[in-house]
Amino acid sequence: MEQFLLKVEGMSCGHCKAAVESALKEIGVETATVNLEAGTVDVAFDPQRLSIGQVKEAIEEAGYDVA
Amino acid sequence: MEQFLLKVEGMSCGHCKAAVESALKEIGVETATVNLEAGTVDVAFDPQRLSIGQVKEAIEEAGYDVA
């Protein structure tokens, strides 16, 4: 399992938190936790199934910018 | 038809806009338009079907504070 703490811009409310966490779970991450105050996403995934590029892409497709 | 411009706190993004407009349409308002920058909801409804109290209640139930 690999774990990353990503800085993500534009997440402003509980809907945004749910949208990002749900987008990440859909692509098969193990865990995804948004911290709205910090503007971060803590994500863990199996590197044999996903790449960090795919994780970032899923966040961006949900409408947010990965810093 | 009656029209009100309500000041609403806590609407921060497109999801919030959609949540408030959808909650108001569910209770039967004629039109509901959120302006995120201004923090307002412009709402029109038939006073024989709804009261302003019901409109405010729907917004609060969606999770936002009517000022």
UniProtKB/TrEMBL annotation, chains A, B:
Keyword Nucleotidyltransferase listed: no
A GO molecular function term, named singly, is: copper ion binding
Keyword terms: Copper, Metal-binding
Q: Residue ranges of the HMA domain?
A: 2-67
Protease among keywords: no
What InterPro entries does this protein's entry cite? Heavy-metal-associated_CS, HMA_Cu_ion-bd, HMA_dom, HMA_dom_sf
Q: What is this protein called?
A: HMA domain-containing protein
Give the organism, scientific name.
Tumebacillus flagellatus
Q: What is the lineage of its organism?
A: Bacteria, Bacillati, Bacillota, Bacilli, Bacillales
